[in-house]
Write a structure and sequence with these properties.
three-stranded antiparallel β-sheet; DNA replication inhibitor; alpha+beta; 218 residues; DNA binding; DNA-binding; 12% strand; Negative modulator of initiation of replication; SeqA_DNA-bd_C; Replication modulator SeqA, C-terminal DNA-binding domain
């Protein structure tokens, strides 16, 4: 296993260039650098796991003392990642319309806290396609932390200070003690697993880069 430390901006750029759920970091970087892809000899797929550097680990800090880098680990997955079943065309189109309706609404545009926007989008995705959302959360978990669950205790048991919040108008809970880049990565993973087209995934991502939105770090 090889481990490198990268800053938040580079981490978000790599994550935003994922073209398939479970795509490994090596594949993404080879594509971005125009390197030839290498066929895997082992049967197990190689998946990328992006984990935040621990408070006492090998990470760099800015002049202000804030953690600025993440640990990017490439590990061998024991089980292949199975995408959820693709919903009907009608369900996908309904979900797409709901995304566009939400991000253009006055309530969403006037919300200046990223965690609230995060919860609003998750709530909308659940209401648009409950079954698809449930399946998507199963493939959008962390390597060692539980991000989504029907049981708040399961999220709390997977890490310290995870600050779980219930997704409005849904039975699901989500860990919110993550910085903006990680929240965005979680949203993108869920949307892609729900077969949201890439242009809408990127449109949602853009909603978290507006300068008037309150930045959140962990």
């Amino acid at each position: 296993m090889k481990t490198i430390s990268i800053d938040d901006e580079l981490y978000q750029y790599i994550a935003s260039n994922t073209q398939a759920i479970g795509e490994d970091a090596s594949t993404i970087l080879r594509r971005l650098l125009n390197f030839p892809q290498v066929q895997q000899i082992k049967k197990e797929p190689i998946t990328s796991n992006v984990t935040e550097a621990s408070n006492q680990g090998n990470h760099s800090r800015s002049d202000s003392g804030a953690v600025t880098e993440k640990e990017f680990s490439l590990t061998t997955s024991e089980q292949p990642l199975v995408l959820p079943k693709q919903p009907s065309k009608e369900v996908i189109e309904h979900t797409n319309r709901q995304i566009q309706k939400l991000i253009s609404s006055a309530e969403f545009l006037h919300e200046d806290k990223q965690v609230n926007r995060f919860l609003m989008i998750l709530s909308m995705l659940y209401r648009a396609n409950p079954e698809g959302f449930s399946s998507a959360t199963e493939v959008s978990q962390g390597r060692s932390r539980v991000y989504f669950s029907l049981e708040v205790a399961e999220i709390e048991a997977s890490g310290s200070s995870v600050n779980p919040k219930q997704i409005p108008k849904s039975p699901f809970w989500v860990a919110t003690n993550n910085n903006t880049a990680r929240k965005l990565n979680m949203l993108e993973s869920v949307m892609r697993a729900m077969y949201v087209p890439e242009h809408l995934v990127q449109l949602v991502a853009f909603q978290f880069t507006s300068p008037h939105i309150e930045e959140e770090t962990v």
